[in-house]
Amino acid sequence: MSSPTDLEFLLRVLLATGCGAVIGMERQYRSRTAGLRTQALVAAGACAFVLFGVQTGAEAPPLQIAAYVVSGVGFLGGGVILRQGFSVQGLNTAATLWCSAAIGCQAAGGHVIPALTMTGVVLGIHAVLRPLGRLLDKAPAAKTEAVAAYVVIARVRRKHEAHLRAQILHTLDGPDITIHGLSGRFVDDDSTANALTELRVELLIEGPAEGILDKLVTRVSLEPGVYAVNWRAADTGQYDGDDDLDDQGPLR
């Protein structure tokens, strides 16, 4: 790639910025995290980095510089990915940032048609595949996963009970999990804050549940004041108040 003139540099950066801005308008219209300015800046920055390597006559070829840009945008995309319970949000936004950087690299090489084509592809994916994805989400699954009932029992110091309840509800926030009940009972007659309370969580889980339950138990066991915790498959009988936690020692 030959070193661009000042006019070519300006036109290529404007092309990258314009394409990124068009994508950003669609993102901001849908109230996404990375909107108009972010997408335009990513595309313009990617273009400028590649052009800078060409202008300075660096030993690294433009393709290698573009690879560094991809790595840098990967860190930027990681910042917009959010985890809530067992669900992950922001993957589409991160992927869009990645595509904006690719458009910037195309513009840096003076490839006008590929840059415009890629912009249209990104917009088409968001405009066309979004409603299609929603239709697929609403369609009945060809094979329905079995739903099974489970019980999680935890013993915690009374002063930490409210915090543990909130932590359990937050951790079990998933589309395949239904909390059927969350109750507690006093284990002893001690009225102090260090007395033990037994929390019983009744769950309905669709599909494989062992990983979800083991993760919950691990998370709960790390909370302050937790004395013991386990899980088991729920039986059809009534709860008799005995879940074999008396035989367990305190968590270390």
Automatic annotation (TrEMBL):
Transmembrane segments: 34-53, 65-82
Topology relative to the membrane: Multi-pass membrane protein
Gene Ontology, cellular component aspect: plasma membrane
Top-level taxon of origin: Bacteria
Domain MgtC-like C-terminal: 150-231
Protein name: MgtC/SapB family protein
Occurrences of domain MgtC/SapB/SrpB/YhiD N-terminal (ranges): 14-134
Keyword Repressor annotated: no
InterPro entries to which the protein is assigned, alphabetical: MgtC-like_C, MgtC/SapB/SrpB/YhiD_fam, MgtC_SapB_SrpB_YhiD_N
Protein family membership: Belongs to the MgtC/SapB family.
